[in-house]
Amino acid sequence: MLESIINPKKVEKGSWKMFFVGLIYASISILLVYFLFSKDFVLAKFSGIIVVTFSVMFSLPFMYFIIKKEEKEDENVEGAVKVWKTHSDAIYALMWLFLGFIVAFSFWYIVLQDSNLFNAQIETYCLINNPGNIEGCVKAYSITPQITAEVSGREARLLSIIENNMYVMIFTLVFSLIFGAGAIFILAWNASVISAAIGIFTEYNLKEIPMGILRYMIHGFPEIAAYFITALAGGMFGIGVLRTGIKNRKFLRVAENTIILLLIAMAILIIAALIEVYFTPLLFK
């Protein structure tokens, strides 16, 4: 019932409204886990995954509605510019949803002060930023400021980030092909990991949330936009196969536009990696 209270069609002509949808769904998800599962001896160990799962469950109607709508429009569009113009509204809507997730997750994570809520996310953060001492990193990050990860050089870090981002992109594509709206899981997971990182960066200070969001969203927004484009491309391709079959002329157009969207996503990921390695460190030491 809850996932159907807000009709996807009502936010179709105002992509910014998805921000509030993200706020509501992420808030409900994290509060449900906090009050229902955080004290459970077994389930508390999986709180981070359960928070994401609830967020995905609430968001599935929106994701499915958007993908189905965009696939229909894609059958009559040709050329990279027209492809982008046709699907840009959907990308913006998903970005607003993602931002709503991040704001709500960050706020409640800091307010509730329960490290179990994002236990898996903190481990993921430590795996990326301090792989040599994951256990110590996890313990330290529940109460202390950020520890700077050691890297061998900017070029090596750039290649590592691009490699990781491409891997996530492929995973998102496969997920969206298998289950069109299923890619929302990967996107909700990334929102929760970024929120855990914001908590660490701000030293769990509520007033510093805007600065924390700025710290990670300078490169995070284009990066996540690329994943949304990938999810949209995979979902449209899958629905296109089911709607028209592979021998239909409309399917060829959908396939061509899918490739264009994937190339756009790859270009954005490379730009995001360059920003993360060479620009963001200039603003945040």
How is this structure best described in words?
With 285 residues, the chain is mainly α. It has one domain. Helices cover 75% and strands 0% of the residues. It contains 9 helices and no strands. The longest helix is centred in the last third of the chain and has 36 residues, at 209-244. The protein starts with 16 loop residues before the first helix and ends with a helix.
Which descriptors would you attach to this protein?
globular; single chain; 75% helix; 285 residues
Q: Which helices and strands occur, and which strands form pairs?
A:
Elements: H1 17-36, H2 47-74, H3 80-112, H4 119-129, H5 134-140, H6 154-178, H7 184-201, H8 209-244, H9 249-283
Helix pairs in contact: 1-2, 1-3, 2-3, 2-7, 2-8, 3-7, 3-8, 4-5, 4-7, 6-8, 6-9, 7-8, 8-9
What is the structure about, briefly put?
This protein has helices at residues 17-36, 47-74, 80-112, 119-129, 134-140, 154-178, 184-201, 209-244, 249-283.
